[in-house]
Amino acid sequence: MGLVPAVEYKGKALYQSIILCEFLEDAYSSYQPNILPADPYTKAYVRIWVDYVVKNLIPGFKRLVQAQDPEKRKQSLDELLASQRKLAEQREDAGEAWKKYADNVAKRPSVINTSSDPEHYEEMYGLDDKLGAQSKAAKAIRARREDIM
Ligand SMILES: N[C@@H](CCC(=O)N[C@@H](CS)C(=O)NCC(=O)O)C(=O)O
Q1: Which InterPro entries does the protein's record reference (predicted)?
Q2: Which of these, 142, 143, 148, 145, lies nearest to 66 by C-alpha position?
Q3: Least trusted range by pLDDT, from 38-52, 78-92, 127-141
């Protein structure tokens, strides 16, 4: 696919973030803490919402930050807000618990060390749209290819 993240395991390649997370759990099952709950129902429930985020919030966010045209921007923002609203309505833990989780993630050294300065994101994604960037990710966003995004 040519996208990151990707993992090489025993000489073979794997990709797609969510699949990699589950693969790491399977391949290193004794590592604690686990990402997914052990209970089958709760695990399936988590996967339902991970799938929702992957298909709606992530593409919606990427389209918003890439959109330069004000009309396209407003449409992208409305779509993203509608997706977020649905998540917040269905998940009672989407309020304070989410904020605490997000704050903790943002403080992790691995996240700090691999993130760009927030003020540069808009410019970078905006340039993608303006210049008609040819990266696989930028093309996928423009073509609304959620399966690649
Ligand atoms: N659905 C993929 C998306 C991966 C993706 O968009 N990767 C971007 C960086 S975040 C990339 O590799 N861009 C390089 C390119 O498009 O050529 C995943 O979840 O791993």
Answers
A1: Glutathione-S-Trfase_C_sf, GST_Omega/HSP26
A2: 142
A3: 127-141
